[in-house]
Structure formats: structure tokens, C-alpha cells
Amino acid sequence: MKNPFSTRYGKITSAILAAVVVGGASLGVASAASAHGRGGHDNGRVSSESATHTPRPGHTPRVAALKFEELQDVTIAGTTTVGSTLTVNPGIYTPAADSVTYKWQRNGVDIADATGTTYVLTADDAGKQIRAVESVVKTGYKTKIENSNRLWVPVVG
Prior knowledge:
The chain is mostly beta strands. It has strands at about 5, 10, 15-20, 25-30, 40, 45, 50-55, 70, 75, 85-90, 90-95, 100-105, 110, 120, 130-135, 145, 150.
């Protein structure tokens, strides 16, 4: 029987089996011992013994954050004339977010104090493209940043 701990490049000398981090505190890392006769496996047989390793103080192991699944894009809609209101149609994500925030942008630059789900177009917006940037946050998940569609505000007159 072929050794399950061999690769075409040689034996694996150590294998990390699991790492669990909750709230930044390590609960420990279980690892197989070395393949060189120190308990991990001997002559192709796997030992049932495993070691527990706690990272050194001040060192938190990296654990990949979970990612949201996007079910529907964030969009903006409304009449694109100065004085009209544009409204965000939020994106839909799974799992549900803990919080969702918005920033409005004019030609890709944040508009000061424009952070709600609606935005009233001003004279500064004429001849520019407007969009909303949605930030979706949930504990344990990577923050999701999504840009809405862009709407062009025509120059009148």
C-alpha cells in the first residue's frame, strides 16, 4: 500500500490538522508529529497521538475571514436632474449583515456628509457621474465593499 503521507517530492515532515481562533484568542493548534520517528507515523502507519501547540505570546495565527455571497447588486435610481433625489436599492447578501453603510461619490470621489440611503443632487453634480458605495459588515466576515451603477447628471442650460 502506498504511504498516504508521501508526495512525489518526498515525505511530509509535519502536517497542521486544525487551527481555531475565536475572537483573536487561540484555542490551540493540533498537529501531526514529524515523520522522522517522533510519533507522527512510523513506516507508513499513523499514530493516534497528536500534539497541541499554543502560539507564542503576542502572536495570533492568521485565519481566513469568511466571505459574503452576493445575491443581488446594489443599485441607485432616480431622476438625474439637479434638485432630484437618488435612492439606494441595497444589495442582498448571505448571511445577513450586522451593519450596512453608504457613501456617495461624484466622479469616484467621496461627497462630504453624503452617507445615507438617499442623496439630493446639487449644482456641483451637473456634468458628473454619481454612484453609491455600499459597505457590508458582519463579525467573522471580510467586509464587502460594492459600488453601485453610475448615473450621469446632465448639464442644463
